[in-house]
């Protein structure tokens, strides 16, 4: 059996829940060490070090002049895609723009009666690096990653948006990626992947100026590289394998639930496809559907491995327990396939994205609904949010005291400063106010 349903109350169920609630993990030591060496290599060797890795792992004949995607390549890409793709692209862009426009933040100021002014100035970072994975050597272009990373940065007002994506063995980038980039105004694109691409964005090379923020999904080497350069630059998040948790009552449609579990499982053998249902009968029907639908998938073996090694179907005593467990697990994607999903929405505290009802597959959120699909995984939805416009913004505090305001606050500031043993702090106020 691909997955054996178990009760949440059973010892096996409790063991599974313990494992799910402690699933955060970093890259293995070998990966960490390898990435540390790559970053150091790029910092010291610049373009030549970057080319060394590109030639070794992606395009053996790559030259420095080919590193940046040329205008000619951009024009050729636009001419090579069909109208159906362009139509779909236009809809996706419009939906994502419309959603993220509402995330804009405004600067603000407050004036006190004594004339002191405090506030916050919101500004975009100067530059952002947008990493887009290669997708099976360029054969399956991850267009949605271009849009989900690039559009919020544009809305934030980031002046320089740089896209990094690995080339195929001939040094080419899939035309669909280049067209998607052009349609949202990205023209600075480099052909590099994995940890060396992240290192180049964070450290800069002779050809690639460093950036302030790095976002985008990738394998464990990309994720580990982002973790190691975090602090030098801002990153979106430390992301793990993709995951979905489906909460279903007796109204759940087994074919829908199985389809959505498989949609996660086909990403990666490490992907996590979970279902908690209140119906033991439904649990068995889901297993039957999983077997039936697997046969027709192009990535059937990946999905099968994911389900057999990491897939979970739990039977809870009621929806109260199921929702409690969902909040503990804090999944990347949470689907509520229950009779009245909106009634339970206010009970959900921790999830990257919430999908309500039987006709809201997670794939709608991946591509066309509008909200961002770059989401916290491994339980980090307890404290992290989806990528958004705010990822590309920074805030500066604003403080302006009048003479009257400083006189009024003088004694309080000095008391706290002297309490901390910082007499120069106290004196910087006393010298202006004459109060000690």
CATH superfamily grouping of the largest domain: Nitrogenase molybdenum iron protein domain
The ordered H/E elements are: EHHHHEEEHEHEHEHEEHEHHEHEHEHEHH
**What number is the mean pLDDT?**
96
Indicate the multimeric state: single chain
Q: What radius of gyration results from the CA coordinates?
A: 25 Å
Total strands: 14
Question: What's the number of helices?
Answer: 16
What count of domains describes the coordinates? Answer: 3
**CATH topology value of the largest domain:** Rossmann fold
Task: Note the beta-strand portion.
Answer: 15-25%
* Poorly predicted segments: none
CATH class group of the largest domain: Alpha Beta
**Which CATH architecture of the largest domain?**
3-Layer(aba) Sandwich
Protein model, in words:
With 436 residues, this protein is an alpha/beta fold. It has three domains: 6-24 and 240-369, Nitrogenase molybdenum iron protein domain (Rossmann fold, 3-Layer(aba) Sandwich), CATH 3.40.50.1980; 29-106 and 123-235, Nitrogenase molybdenum iron protein domain (Rossmann fold); 401-433, no CATH class. The protein is built from 16 helices and 14 strands. It has helices spanning 11-20, 29-57, 71-80, 83-101, 143-156, 175-183, 194-203, 220-229, 254-265, 280-294, 300-310, 319-329, 341-345, 362-367, 403-419, 423-433; strands at 6-7, 108-111, 117-124, 127-131, 160-165, 188-191, 213-215, 234-235, 243-248, 272-277, 312-315, 333-337, 353-356, 393-400. The strands form three sheets. Strands 1-11-10-9-12-13 form a six-stranded parallel sheet, sandwiched between helices. A hairpin with a 5-residue loop joins strand 2 and strand 3. Helix 3 crosses helix 6 and helix 4 packs parallel to helix 5 (143-156). It is globular.
